[in-house]
Amino acid sequence: MAEPETFDFIVVGAGSAGCVLANRLTASGRHRVLLIEAGGEDNYFWVHVPLGYGKLFTDARVNWLFQSAPEPELDNRSIAQPRGKVLGGSSSINGLLYIRGQRQDYDHWRQLGNVGWSYDDVLPYFKRSEAQQRGGDAFHGADGPLTVSDQVEPHEICEAFIKAAEQAGIPRNDDFNGARQEGAGYFQTTMRNGRRWSTAQAYLKPARRRPNLTVVTRAITTRILIEGGAAVGVEYRQDGQLITARARGEVLLSAGAFGSPQILQLSGLGPAALLREHGISVVRDIPGIGADLQDHLQARMLYRVTRPITLNDVVNRWDRKLRAGMRYFLTRKGPLAIPAGYAGGFFRTDPRLETPDVQCHLLLFSADKPGGNLHPFPGMTASICQLRPESRGTVRIKSTDAAEAPEIRLNYLSTETDKRTMVEGLKLLRRVMGAPALKPYIAAESDPGPACVSDADLLAFVRRRGTTIFHPTSTCRMGIDEFAVVDPQLRLKGIGNLRVVDCSVMPSLVSGNTNAGAIMIGEKASDLILADAERAPRRGAAA
């Protein structure tokens, strides 16, 4: 057998944070980096068309297609958990919304003992990543790799929704990532010239021109190699062969909230009883690996629209689809340039709250489920998700096969606060949707419908129809308490030369979409890693 190839850094996972690491760690030319991705190249047409996200929900070419275990509080339904399996990870298949969360989210991280993670600490990394279409200011950067754009054009239903929110006492807000989050408005997106701008495009594509970056695709990482209490490399399977790579510096795990705990558990790191159950030698008993799983639950209300001005009306007629396709290819505008949420907002279900506790997404189409066939009538969707759930779940391996999905339990609605917030959020959303500005557009609420009136009815609707909004986090939680998995430097506790760099390290779920936060974590982690590399000699380096 040939000697394992040696690199300065090995990054496992070319997702939202992993692509950032690959770019920043190779920029100086001093460090040799291996980037391992289980999926393939991002050359599938629908990856790059914004509306294509709807086709990617169930496409095994680019999606892990995870499913949760039956959820007791959601009528024992198994909930689909899409995750990107392609260069760019979930930034290549998500809904393209750019939301950072609230200042208070990150200040809470710092209050938990995570020095360096307050809002003032992380804002420079958000700005460093960003190429804001509107230009730079106190909250935004203009020169980063990640293009953040306004919607390509307004829509009359979105304008009516924003006006309806104002009529319900909710202010208009044209920048959810600025001075305040509360309000209703258009979402900004990770698009550039009408095309998806994933981290594969923004960070990895330019980095691949560098000779010190090696990218390996369609490679399943089977375990991290640990010797003498420190990570020294990884083992991965590609084209039926088991391959070993060694690291002089660090192994950086960026496989996501489901993948990172799975790989750690397969490597002998995690709850000892679970590892022994599967015949895995316990390298270190770390109960927190795979614990504290958090996610945003959403409930989607469906509406019949009075006029044929929705995406339903485009998709269900060939002539309109043809016109939409021609318009997109000629101008990069029109229905194909629409992301998952066109407009929306952040609302408080109780005026006594300091900040919004629910998020609304307005989508100009309707379907029975995400990724499902659009209805044959004009329709739209308005959804509510709880921003700061108390429910906690787990990710646990089911076998020693790295290709087998882990057991995912979200435990949605397992607290009274979560149940109450979802119900109050739906009631607030109904007030907005019933405001005068939207009356000319709404023919009827088709789901849950007018028979759903009481709080008990609304909770039953959430149990029957609630689903993820695709924001799993916190399964390798950062902190200083005994159950935390990584320290504030993102180093795995008790194991040298191993860090976790993705949404799994979030101490708590941010109040909004998570992709911007994952990119920020990659940016900040790259500085932490490079600073340590300057101070410490690399294993295997010449004396």
Structure in words:
- By secondary structure, the protein is α/β, with parallel strands linked by helices.
- It has a domain of 178 residues: 2-Layer Sandwich (Cholesterol Oxidase, domain 2), CATH 3.30.410.
- It has 14 helices and 24 strands.
- Strands 1, 2, 10, 11, 12, 13 and 24 form a seven-stranded mixed beta sheet that branches.
- It is globular.
- The model has no long low-confidence stretch (mean pLDDT 96).
Give me the secondary-structure topology.
Layout: E1 5-12, H1 16-26, E2 33-36, H2 45-48, H3 53-56, E3 66-67, E4 80-81, H4 103-111, H5 119-129, E5 130-132, E6 146-148, H6 156-167, E7 183-186, E8 191-192, E9 195-196, H7 199-207, E10 213-216, E11 219-227, E12 230-238, E13 241-253, H8 256-266, E14 269-270, H9 272-277, E15 284-285, E16 297-305, H10 311-315, H11 318-331, E17 343-347, E18 358-363, E19 379-386, E20 394-396, E21 407-409, H12 416-433, E22 442-447, H13 455-465, E23 467-468, E24 498-500, H14 515-535
Parallel strand pairs: 1-2, 1-13, 2-10, 5-6, 13-24, 14-15
Antiparallel strand pairs: 3-4, 7-17, 8-9, 11-12, 12-13, 16-19, 16-22, 16-23, 17-18, 18-19, 20-21
